[in-house]
Fold Zinc metalloprotease.
Amino acid sequence: MVLLAIDWASVGVKALQFILSFSILVTLHEFGHFITARIFKCRVEKFYLFFDPWFSLFKKKVGDTEYGIGWVPFGGYVKIAGMVDESMDKEQLKQEPKPWEFRSKPAWQRLIIMCAGVVMNLLLGFFIYSMMLFHWGDEYLPTQNLTYGVTADSLAQSVGFKNGDKILSVDHKPVERFKNVAMNVILDGATSVQVDRNGQKIDVAIPKTFAGDIIKYKDIAFLSPRYLMYPLGTVVDTMPAKIAGFKVGDKIIGVNGNAVQFFDQFKESVSNNKGKLVTAKVLRGNDTLNLSVNVPADGIIGIAPNIPDNALKTHLTKYGFWESFPGGFQKGKETLRSYVLQLKLIFSGKVKANESLGGVISMGNLFPSLWDWQTFWGLTAFFSMVLALMNILPIPALDGGHVLFCLIEMITGRKPSDKTLEVAQMIGMVLLLGLMVYALGLDFWRLFKK
């Protein structure tokens, strides 16, 4: 039996952020369908946040529309009269079309109604990004400001990176923002990275399998900023370092007689001595101490340095209210582009689906364990853009499937039969439900695998 230690407080905070974020996204998405349907005189029978099989948590009928909240927090829907949708209301479709029904409207009106949800999500994503720029500005770490170069993890070292390398360019093109180095390698298929290593320019070749390896190990931060060995800011209770006598404020200057200047040097020294006793030379005030610590099999002794906020110089661009909108639009475009490239990696076979897909647990885990509004809105904007992109795919049961049939009708002048739409809807629902179950299964497999 596997026993999992669960921090329920953190889980609760993550869950609340996830539910609030998706409530906003789903409500505005469905409102897009709702308002355009009403504009074109379609009767909207239901408007629900979350799904309501068998019963709902709340419902109230106003005019022709029943508004409600379901109990399955995986989405939401509007039920438009005379439309072949997830309700599969075949009895209504057997009757003669009524003037207020979706199927009675011209193809161009139906096209607008079906595109409206995607448009709302795009507008929401652009708007959130714009307001984030207006409120917080755009802060980033310039690549040239990594004073001590990078720390390379084991995967990066396996292809030729070394701790202390200073990034010059990717595929011989300078990269202004350090975080974009990883994105260029993973998503743009960069074949080389140029680095300054002790004053010498070195070309690090990137193998074609590297992006897949990164996704497999779930760590896109294969390169991170290199920091000095600052005084300790964290010493975890009950961990080996605490037992050995380490204290917050201690500064480690050596391990087993070897000088330590950077934190990665200390980590490497400890990692190379798993299961052994190591002796650290420590400055504590005016005293120099030697503390011996037993390194466990995982190499983690339970300390972290207190890295000051100004350890590396970031760049902050402030935006006025009107200036923020073009900036938000550009940020939204970059989000869409990066997600399209991620899908391309999956469909090209460079990344395995079972290593990159995730369900609601994976999405919920992206939120921090402590409530942070900047992160919350950033993830909400990201999910809004992704939801728009996924919904417009020409798959039956998604908005894009309905859009495809409308376009075919407008081009050929022939409307698909209700039976064709029913079969397509059923196939699409089976595919989507299967994908959701598969993604959720991967979530649970990863959870219990840990």
